[in-house]
């Protein structure tokens, strides 16, 4: 879990937003 979080933090904000949108899309 911690590894995922540190990887997430290393991503740029733009990439983070894109992945969030993808996760939301999959959730629907």
Structural commentary:
- With 28 residues, the protein is an all-alpha fold.
- It has one domain.
- The chain has 2 helices and no strands.
- The chain has helices at residues 2-10, 13-27.
- The chain is flat and about 25 Å long.
- The termini are far apart.
- The model has no long low-confidence stretch (mean pLDDT 81).
- This is Transcriptional regulator.
- Mean of residue pLDDT values: 81
Percent helix, as a range, is: over 70%
Biggest β-sheet, characterized? none
Structural class: mainly alpha
Number of spatially distinct domains: 1
Shape: flat
Q: Beta-sheet strand percentage?
A: under 5%
Low-confidence stretches: none
Q: Which radius of gyration do the C-alpha atoms yield?
A: 10 Å
Tell me how many strands there are.
0
Encode the helix/strand succession as letters: HH
Q: How far is the N terminus from the C terminus?
A: 24 Å
Our count of helices gives 2
Protein name: Transcriptional regulator
Descriptors for this entry?
mainly alpha, 2 helices, Transcriptional regulator, single chain, 86% helix, 28 residues
Q: How are the secondary structure elements laid out?
A:
Blueprint: H1 2-10, H2 13-27
């Amino acid at each position: 879990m911690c590894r995922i979080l540190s990887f997430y933090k290393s991503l740029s904000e733009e990439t983070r937003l894109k992945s969030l949108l993808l996760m939301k899309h999959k959730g629907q």
